[in-house]
Amino acid sequence: MSTLFRFPNPVNEVAARTVATGVVVLCLLTLVFRTPWLLLPLAYGFVARVATGPTLSPLGQLATRVIAPRLGPPKLVPGPPKRFAQGIGAVVTVGAVVAYFLGAPTLSWILVGMIAVFATLEAAFGLCVGCLVFGRLQAWGVVPDTVCEACNDVRARYPNSVAHSAA
Amino acid sequence: MTGDDRSGSPVDQPAAEQLTFGPPVGAATVPWPDDHDRVVAPVGVVEDVSDEPDDVRGGPAEWAWVQEWRASGERAPWPQGVALAAFTLIIVASAIFVLTAGVADTPWLAVVLNVVVAAGVGPQLWLARGIPVIRFVSWGAALGVPVGWLACFVVPFPT
Fold first, then answer.
1. Rounded to an integer, what distance in angstroms lies between the CA atom of residue B22 and that of residue A144?
2. Which of A19, A105, B46, B57 lies 20 to 30 Å (CA to CA) from residue A124?
């Protein structure tokens, strides 16, 4: 059971961006056709990924097993920030489901629109806004450094820097 | 967001500034070109980095990664950066237009809301103007606000 509820670390960013692309498509379908039932797989996907990584997420399985391996070599990035970002997505999409079924569909569409924007940033530009928030929380000490030690090694990110060559 | 569980280096090593954005470094030992293994002060402690621009000078050590990035002399990914700025511009301009359209029946409220929004985001955009990756978002948003205002005068509001 403990192996089920774990998140991969490191994460293949190619797969992550593939998942984000699927999320964008799902969000756009939801918004264009105003189909409330699509909110359910959207929210389930985020909850499944934050809990188990790609294991229980159909989109995650498709991305990691089928699509990402065909898009080139894996590009490894730390996993904890990605899990945090998935957590934000889970909160927002579950909020959208709750808002819709409590009679506030406009709020629901706004929340889905927000997810669409941030998933587009991840899919198209590789800009993980949730990871930015995670980084700030770690810098402020809210998230302990032990959660993601690789996140704090700036030299790994800038290997060509003067500092790195001096190390 | 998700990924396969492969072994190897925890992070890859980019050759240029990436649009994938890593968290800033916290208190850590950062080797310095002219000062071997200088220990960077903990977050919140002001350092003497007087040769740096205003946004970094006197800043906490958590911005050491920005100094490292600048020292690395990496080329900017202009195509992706401009695309990111354009995307941000569209989103921000649309948000400004929708916000204004929503209160168009009360023009004074529309003006006040827009002033509040602009005053709120302005300082953030200014501070972000030189930070890797985020600078493209900053530039796009800074253009998106006036473009949104212009759209309010040019594009008729939906009824």
1. 16
2. A105
